C-alpha cells in the first residue's frame, strides 16, 4: 500500500501507530526526533507523515517547514499534539499541516485520516 513516516518522541505512540498501520498493509518507518525525521523523509519520500509537534531538538513545526520546502508533490502531514490550543493549531495550519489531531487520540482516527488522504493522492486501484 503506502509508505508512512511516523515521527514521535514517545516510543509507545510510535509502536501503536506502527502496529495499526502495518496491520492495514502499509510500510511504516519511524523516527524519534525531528532531525531523524528530516533524514528519513528525504531518504524515503513517504506518501504520508504523522508528525508529533513537541519533540526535543527540532520540533514538529521545523520538520513541517522542511517537508513543505521539498520539491515535488506536497506530502500529506497529520500533526499530533498534546498542546491542543488555538495558537498551536493556527501555526500548524499556517505551516501547511493537512490535519491537526489532539492527544490522546484513537488509533482508528489516525487510520481513518490516512485512508482519506491516501485516497486523494493514490488512484483507487492502488489503495
Automatic annotation (TrEMBL):
Pfam families: Response_reg (PF00072). Keywords: DNA-binding, Phosphoprotein, Transcription, Transcription regulation, Two-component regulatory system. GO terms for molecular function: DNA binding. The modification 4-aspartylphosphate is found at residue 52. InterPro entries: Bact_response_regulator, CheY-like_superfamily, Sig_transdc_resp-reg_receiver. One of its GO terms (biological process) is phosphorelay signal transduction system. PANTHER family: RESPONSE REGULATORY DOMAIN-CONTAINING PROTEIN, STRESS RESPONSE REGULATOR PROTEIN 1. This is Response regulatory domain-containing protein.
